[in-house]
Specification:
heterodimer, A: alpha+beta, Pnp Oxidase, Chain A, 26% helix, B: alpha+beta, Beta-Lactamase, Arc Repressor Mutant, subunit A, 3 domains, six-stranded antiparallel sheet, 29% helix
C-alpha cells in the first residue's frame, strides 16, 4: 500500500486536472475525466467523482478487473502524479460532496485559465449528477514530463 | 477484402481535436490488466482511419502498447468543449521520415512555447488504427465567440490571388498581395514577412499588416525561437495555444533588447502563431508569420493554404530579380525650406546608421543609405537605379539573389516610421529618388566622438536641384 502524505494530499486536492483509466469487462482500456479528488484520513483511500452519464463504460469492468489509475496534473507547473489501486466502493454523493466537487471544478477552471484555456470551454466539459468512486491506493508514480516520468514514488 | 464500418464520428469532422490545444488523455493496459493513464502532447490525424501519437517519455505506455496494442484516447474539441473517445489499435512506430519530422518540429515548437526545450524529445511516432471514434455524453456544443466556421476552401479567391501574384511587378506589390491574402483568405489580421539575408543565417522583417509597431528591419537568427525553427527545418510551425511561460518571455523581452535592436512585430496577447517557410527550389527565401489572439486561431487547412501561397510568392520573388529595367526619373519639384541639420552617424563595422543619435537601421540597408547620402551630399544626386547599387562593389551584394529590392523596401519603411525628412520614392521600375527635406550632416562613428565627413553638411531640399542647395563643410 502507498500512503499519501500531507504535501501530496494538498496537491491532489488542489485545482489539478484528473484523468482516470480503467479496464472494461472485455479487457479494453477506458479513459475519462474525474472531479473532486479527496484523500481520506490515513492517506490510503481516495474518492473521485465521475459524471453518471459517462460512468457506464468506466465502471463496466469493476467486477472483472476493478483496477483504476488516476493521474493528477497541475496545468500551470505540469507537475503530475499517477495513483494506481483498486475500486472499493461506488456510491451516490451527498450535498456536501456535491459542494466539494463544485469547489474543485472552480479551482481547476482557475488553474486552466492561468494558462489561457477558455473558462467557458472548461465549464462545458463537466456534467451533473456525479457518482463517487472510492479506491485504495497501492502504488504512486511521478508522471511529470521528463526523464523521471514513470518512476515510483 | 472487407471494408471497415464507418466511424461514428469521422475524424475529419473534428479538426480542432488534432491541434494539440488541450492535451489528450490516453489509457493503456498492462499484461497484468493494470490500466495506465497519462497525457499526450500530440494526437495527429494521419488519414480517415489512423492517428499518430507522440512517443516521448511514457515508459509504461510504450511498454503496454508493445504487449497489448489496444488503447483509448480522449480528445477535446477546443471551440465547444465536446469530448470524443478514440479506440485505437497500435500498428507501428516510426522514428524517421516526413511524418516523424513534421511531428518533431511540432513538438519542438510546443517545447519552446512551454519553456521545456530540453525535456520534450520525440523518440518515435506511434501509428494507430482508429477502430471507433465516438462522442462522449455531454452538454450541447456551444461555439466559442470568434470561432472559425468550417467553410469550403475558396478556390475562386485562391485563383484570383495566384493571378495577382503572377502579375506583381515588384517585391513590394508581391508582399502586399500576400499579406492581403492572409487577411482575406485566412482571416488573419496580423501577419508579417521576414526575408533571409544574403548569408541565409538571418531573417529580417520587410513587410507587415495589423501591428501598432510595424517592426520593419527587426531581425532574428535562423534556428532561434519558433520562427527560426520553421526556417531552419523548412517546415511550417503552428502553435495553437501559447502557454503562460512564453507570454512571460515575450513580456520580458523589451527590457532585454539592445538599443539598436528593432523589436519583432507582436500582439499584446498572442495565442496562436503560424510560421510558414517561403521556399523556392528548396531554398529558403523567407518566412511568413501569422498571429492571432484566439486559441486555436489557425488550423491545418490554414497551414496548407498559407504554404501554397508562400511558396508561390517565393518563386515569384526569385523571378523578379534581374527583370528590372532602367526607367526614366520624374521631374523634381521644388519645395524649399531650411530646417536644422540632422546628424547622420554611420558605423562602418556593422553598417549601422543613427539619425540624431536615434538608431535607424544596420547591415546592408544601412550601407545603402549611407552611400545614397554620400552621393547626395558630394554630387547632389537624387535619383538612383537598382542596377548601379548592384554594381557597387562596396556594398558586397552577391551576384545572385542579392535581396536589394527587399533592402530598399526595408529602408523606405524604416525611414517612414522614424523620420519625416528622408524618403525613398520609386519613380520607375528599377529606379528611385532620395528625397531630403532637412540639411544633412554626415558623421562616421568609429571613434567615440565621431569624425565629420568633409563637405558633409548640406542644405538638402526635397526635390530641389543641386544648384538649389548650398553646402558648407
Amino acid at each position: 500500500m502507498f500512503r499519501i502524505d500531507d504535501e501530496l494530499k494538498e496537491f491532489c486536492e488542489s485545482g489539478v486536472s484528473v484523468i482516470i483509466g480503467t479496464v472494461d469487462a472485455d479487457g479494453l482500456p477506458r479513459v475519462g475525466y474525474a472531479w473532486g479528488p479527496r484523500v481520506h484520513p490515513g492517506g490510503q483511500r481516495v474518492s473521485i467523482y465521475l459524471e453518471v452519464a459517462r460512468s457506464g463504460p468506466l465502471l463496466a469492468g469493476r467486477e472483472a478487473n476493478g483496477q483504476i489509475a488516476a493521474t493528477f496534473t497541475d496545468p500551470v507547473s505540469i507537475r503530475s502524479v499517477q495513483l494506481k489501486g483498486r475500486i472499493v466502493d461506488v456510491g451516490e454523493p451527498n450535498e456536501a460532496e456535491n459542494t466539494w466537487v463544485a469547489r474543485h471544478r472552480d479551482a481547476m477552471t482557475v488553474s486552466c485559465s492561468l494558462i489561457g484555456d477558455p473558462p467557458h470551454m472548461i465549464r462545458n466539459i463537466w456534467l451533473d449528477p456525479t457518482v463517487r468512486i472510492d479506491f485504495d491506493v497501492e502504488r504512486a508514480f511521478d508522471q511529470t514530463p521528463g526523464p523521471t516520468a514513470g518512476s515510483a514514488l | 477484402m472487407t471494408t471497415a464500418a464507418p466511424l461514428a464520428v469521422p475524424l475529419e469532422s473534428i479538426p480542432s481535436c488534432w491541434e494539440g490545444v488541450i492535451p489528450a488523455a490516453i489509457c493503456t493496459v498492462g499484461e497484468d490488466g493494470t490500466p495506465n493513464v497519462t497525457y499526450l502532447s500530440i494526437v495527429h490525424r494521419v488519414d480517415e482511419r489512423h492517428v499518430a501519437l507522440s512517443r516521448q517519455f511514457f515508459k509504461k505506455t510504450d511498454e503496454n502498447t508493445q504487449r497489448n496494442p489496444l488503447a483509448q484516447v480522449e480528445v477535446i474539441e477546443v471551440d465547444t468543449g465536446r469530448l470524443f473517445n478514440l479506440d485505437l489499435r497500435y500498428e507501428r512506430t516510426e522514428t524517421e521520415g516526413p511524418l516523424f519530422e513534421r511531428m518533431r518540429t511540432h513538438l519542438d515548437a510546443v517545447a519552446l512555447e512551454s519553456g521545456l526545450a530540453n525535456v520534450f524529445v520525440l523518440k518515435g511516432v506511434d501509428i494507430c488504427e482508429v477502430t471507433e471514434c465516438s462522442l462522449v455524453p455531454g452538454k450541447p456544443a456551444v461555439l466559442s465567440p470568434g470561432a472559425p466556421v468550417n467553410s469550403p476552401v475558396p478556390l475562386a479567391q485562391i485563383e484570383a490571388v495566384s493571378q495577382h501574384i503572377s502579375e506583381a511587378e515588384d517585391l513590394e506589390e508581391l508582399l502586399q498581395v500576400f499579406l492581403d491574402a492572409c487577411r482575406d483568405l485566412v482571416h488573419c489580421d496580423h501577419a508579417y514577412v521576414m526575408l533571409a539575408d544574403e548569408t541565409g543565417d538571418r531573417l529580417y522583417t520587410v513587410a507587415s499588416i495589423g501591428y501598432g509597431e510595424a517592426g520593419t528591419g527587426s531581425e532574428i537568427e535562423v534556428g532561434d525561437g519558433l520562427i527560426g525553427l520553421a526556417a531552419a527545418r523548412r517546415q511550417s510551425v503552428r502553435v495553437t495555444h501559447m502557454a503562460r511561460d512564453l507570454r512571460y518571455a515575450q513580456a520580458a523581452r523589451p527590457a532585454d533588447e539592445a538599443r539598436d535592436e528593432i523589436p519583432l512585430p507582436r500582439l499584446a496577447s498572442t495565442q496562436s502563431q503560424l510560421v510558414t517557410p517561403m521556399l523556392s527550389r528548396r531554398e529558403l527565401v523567407g518566412v511568413a508569420v501569422l498571429e492571432s489572439e484566439r486559441i486555436g486561431g489557425f488550423q491545418a487547412a490554414d497551414e496548407c493554404l498559407v504554404g501554397i501561397l508562400a511558396n508561390q510568392v517565393a518563386t515569384a520573388m526569385t523571378l523578379l530579380v534581374g527583370v528590372e529595367s532602367a526607367g526614366v526619373g520624374a521631374d523634381p519639384t521644388a519645395a524649399p525650406h531650411e530646417p536644422a541639420a540632422v546628424v547622420v552617424k554611420y558605423y562602418p563595422d556593422d553598417e549601422s546608421v543613427f539619425l540624431d543619435n536615434e538608431y535607424l537601421i544596420k547591415g546592408v540597408a544601412g550601407g545603402i543609405l549611407w552611400r545614397l547620402l554620400r552621393h547626395y551630399v558630394d554630387e547632389g544626386r537624387e535619383e538612383f537605379s537598382n542596377r548601379e547599387l548592384r554594381l557597387d562593389s562596396s556594398l558586397a551584394l552577391p551576384d545572385v539573389k542579392d535581396n536589394l529590392e527587399a533592402r530598399l523596401i526595408l529602408l523606405r519603411k524604416r525611414l517612414e516610421e522614424r523620420c519625416d525628412y528622408l524618403r525613398i520614392e520609386k519613380v520607375a521600375r528599377g529606379r528611385f529618388r532620395l528625397e531630403v527635406a532637412r540639411p544633412i550632416s554626415l558623421v562616421t562613428g568609429n571613434d567615440p566622438g565621431g569624425s565629420e565627413v568633409s563637405g558633409a553638411e548640406v542644405s538638402g531640399v526635397e526635390g530641389g536641384s543641386a544648384e538649389d542647395r548650398g553646402s558648407s563643410g
